[in-house]
Write a structure and sequence with these properties.
Layout: H1 2-40, H2 44-71, H3 77-91, H4 93-108, E1 116-119, E2 122-129, E3 133-139, E4 148-156, H5 159-162, E5 165-167, E6 174-183, H6 189-218, E7 232-238, E8 241-251, H7 255-271, H8 288-291
Antiparallel strand pairs: 1-2, 1-5, 2-3, 3-4, 6-8, 7-8
Length: about 300
């Protein structure tokens, strides 16, 4: 019995020493590789990528070789494989999740190259889809009207598994845009509304027809229930005037261009009307006796 215990103790000591040696060798190799990288690479981001990759490889190597040392003598290969898989999953959690995200993107066709998407607060046009990340040209941020900033964003694939994803172009490549036109209370708002409706219809005529066909096609796969794609003008009252809001469909990448064209027509049309004025912050004094309607004046007023 003592001989058996002595043999087991000696075997454990040997495996422990071998494990320590393996860990030291892997750690030494990692340090040497990183030292070479740091001496030859100046870019901080590239250094970071190397450091992450080397760390992943070192952890996986330790789990593999140390596992082989301690697993020797176990009869069940399935047990070893299970332990190895668990260790690898822990060491390579981020790459595995990113790879799973890539599989999800590809199989579910969440988006493709050229699509405009929003995820985790970032909006951009997809320019590359890799195994572990996808790249976007950033849109918005400090630039108005959904135009590009010129920056490239690296998004880990795992975010598609945990964050809401908005696709601007999949199925229905149009968005609703609104332009608010504020006119004074004294303006002929009914006439202005007719003018705006004509301008919106003129600019959105082709888009509305294309959108209608796109909806018919997309409705075969998605429950898109738009029945009316024609532009409309809504009327509301603000503190400083009457707000006429043009609501119309435009191509997802032409929001700024369409708004510019509509505004130019609005300015040209209103310039020809002597009974329509755009409202802007100003101060005025209102005399109810002179300017008010007869029914709103005090009864004892002369």
């Amino acid at each position: 019995m003592n001989n058996v215990l002595s043999f087991v103790a000696r075997d454990v000591k040997i495996k422990l020493l071998v494990s320590i040696a393996i860990i030291f060798i892997v750690w030494l190799v990692k340090k040497v590789v990183l030292h070479i990288v740091y001496n030859r690479v100046e870019d901080v981001h590239v250094r970071y990528g190397w450091r992450k990759g080397v760390n992943y490889a070192a952890n996986a190597s330790i789990i593999l070789f140390v596992g082989l040392v301690w697993i020797n003598g176990m009869r069940s290969f399935a047990t070893y494989f299970g332990l190895l898989s668990a260790g690898v999953s822990i060491a390579l959690k981020d790459p595995i999740l990113n790879f799973a995200g890539w599989l999800f993107i590809v199989t579910e066709q969440q988006f493709k190259i050229g699509d405009r998407v929003e995820i985790s607060g970032h909006i951009g046009d997809v320019i590359d889809i890799g195994l572990f990340e996808f790249l976007m040209i950033e849109v918005g941020n400090w630039v108005d009207a959904d135009q590009s900033t010129g920056r490239i964003i690296h998004i880990p694939n795992e975010l598609v598994l945990t964050s809401p994803l908005v696709n601007y172009t999949k199925g229905f490549p149009y968005i609703w845009n609104e332009i608010g036109v504020l006119i004074t209370f004294e303006s002929n708002w009914k006439k202005a509304k007719v003018i705006l409706q004509e301008i919106a219809a003129r600019h959105a005529e082709k888009v509305s027809e294309a959108a209608r066909k796109s909806i018919e096609k997309a409705s075969r796969k998605y429950a898109i229930l738009y029945k009316n794609t024609t532009p409309r003008v809504y009327t509301t009252v603000e503190d400083s005037g009457v707000m006429l809001t043009i609501r119309y469909l435009c191509w997802v990448r032409n929001r700024r261009g369409s708004a510019e064209a509509i505004w130019e027509d609005v300015l040209n049309a209103f310039a020809k009307c002597d009974d329509i004025d755009l409202a802007y912050p100003t101060e005025r004094f209102y005399n109810n006796l002179l300017e008010g309607k007869p029914g709103t004046k005090p009864k004892n007023a002369k």
